[in-house]
Specification:
The structure is a single chain. The chain has nine helices and 25 strands. Helix 1 (about 10-25) runs parallel beside helix 8. The chain folds into two domains: about 1-110 and about 250-320, FAD/NAD(P)-binding domain (3-Layer(bba) Sandwich), CATH 3.50.50; about 115-245, FAD/NAD(P)-binding domain (3-Layer(bba) Sandwich), CATH 3.50.50.60. About 45% of the residues are buried. Strands 5-2-1-9-21 form a five-stranded parallel sheet, covered by helices on one side. It has a five-stranded parallel sheet with strand order 11-18-12-13-14. A three-stranded antiparallel sheet has the order 6-7-8, with no helix packed on it. The chain starts with a strand and ends with a helix. Strand 7 and strand 8 (about 95-100) form a beta hairpin. By secondary structure, it is α/β, with parallel strands linked by helices.
């Protein structure tokens, strides 16, 4: 019986665990494959729903499930901090205990680090608690300046700050506070989602402006104090309510391992997602893939899910002594919430040499319904 070690129970980890479980051939009394998922948290959060939580469109317990619910025939969840990753021997250490496997899939996502004491003055909406607390403050808000800050690059879910700003604007509008409120986005980027290409970035910027959201590109934060942001260009801006993205790093256990490339992230074969170590794979936000254009592959959830399906399929093929027959294509569709019950359908294709990597359509209700269904299906399928 082969053993597959899956590191992390985020979107990619859950997807690959379920895909392997479905195709393992395991039955109640017959186990052909052992799948072990390692996760330090007791909750698996569907992070695309965090902007909804910020504005009260979701309650906290609606956007996560217990990792224990993943367990099934031949699928086990081990809770604890991963202390060591040894790709040469396909093993890891948790709470001093070594686990060995025949295959390993690393889906540990990102480590979040809050700099400049941002959490003393604002709310990290990339975490459940921060999004929840921001909503509590938003409910009490009666007017003033709201700042959405991107504190550093790169960061996962690159549409999320723009979704957050547009959903906040919609919330403020519905409360009749638009005339008393100013919403601003501050970012080190040259343009919103600049990886998408100049045309798409300008389209999104135009939509923000139409909604009255102020946009400040090439603004790198250097310090924060109560009600004040200071940037590298020496400009200062005041705020009454602040939400922010933290710095995103490769997890420490990976940074100190032999897997970390020059960037700190894990270098993989861009087609198979296999590392330089045989039968050791990495998927999702933790991977380092450089596109033909020279820019890094953006850290999008759609890629984590598609990579998980491909790696699960190919591992199952290998276990059955069959040749692998699926490869990763950096393309897919996702939806950017824009308020008023609408979302922007965005089709990304990063395999092309075209300057435009993402096609943005006009916000519509169908896009919102599609995003709603993605969330519901995710929980239905996996938990």
């Amino acid at each position: 019986m082969k053993t597959v070690l899956i590191l992390g129970a985020g979107i990619g980890g859950v997807e690959i665990a379920r895909e392997l479980s479905i195709h393992s051939g395991n039955e109640e009394d017959i186990l052909l494959m052992k799948i072990i998922v390692f996760e330090k948290e007791g909750k698996s959060v569907f992070s695309p729903s965090l902007p909804w939580l910020m504005v009260g469109k979701r309650k906290t317990d609606q956007i996560y499930k217990s990792t224990e619910k993943l367990e099934a025939s031949g699928l086990e969840v081990v809770k604890g901090e991963i202390e060591k990753v040894d790709p040469e021997n396909i093993s890891i250490t948790v709470k001093g205990k070594e686990y060995k496997g025949d295959y390993m899939v690393i889906s540990l996502g990102v480590e979040q680090k809050v700099n400049y004491k941002l959490d003393e003055y604002g709310y990290n909406f990339f975490q459940l608690k921060g999004a929840e607390l921001f909503h509590e403050e938003l409910e009490k808000f009666t007017g003033g300046k709201i700042a959405v800050l991107i504190s550093s690059l790169p960061f996962k879910s690159p549409a999320a700050p723009y979704e957050a700003a547009m959903l906040i604007e919609d919330y403020i509008s519905q409360k009749g506070l638009s005339d008393e409120t100013e919403i601003s986005i501050y970012t080190p980027e040259k343009g919103p989602m600049e990886f998408a290409g100049e045309d798409s970035s300008n389209e999104l910027k135009s939509l923000l402006e139409k909604k009255g959201i102020k946009y400040f590109p090439e603004h790198q934060i250097t310090s924060v104090s109560k009600n004040n942001l200071e940037f590298a260009n020496s400009e200062n801006y005041s705020f009454d309510l602040l939400t922010f993205t933290p710095e995103h790093l490769s997890p420490a256990v990976i940074r100190k391992s032999v897997l970390a490339g020059k960037s700190g992230w894990i270098k993989v074969n861009e087609l198979t997602l296999e590392t330089e170590y045989p039968n050791v794979y990495a998927i999702g936000d933790i991977v380092d893939i450089t596109l033909e254009s020279g820019i890094p592959l953006p850290k999008l959830g759609i890629f984590a899910r598609s990579q998980a399906k491909i790696v699960a399929h190919n591992i199952a093929r290998k276990i059955s002594n069959k040749a692998i027959d699926k490869t990763f294509k950096a393309e897919g569709e996702y939806f950017i919430e824009s308020g008023e019950g609408k979302a922007i359908p965005a089709k990304g294709n990063f395999n092309t040499s075209s300057k435009s990597k993402v096609d943005l359509n006009i916000p519509d209700h169908w896009g919102h319904i599609s995003k709603w269904w993605t969330e519901k299906y995710w929980f239905f399928k996996n938990f």
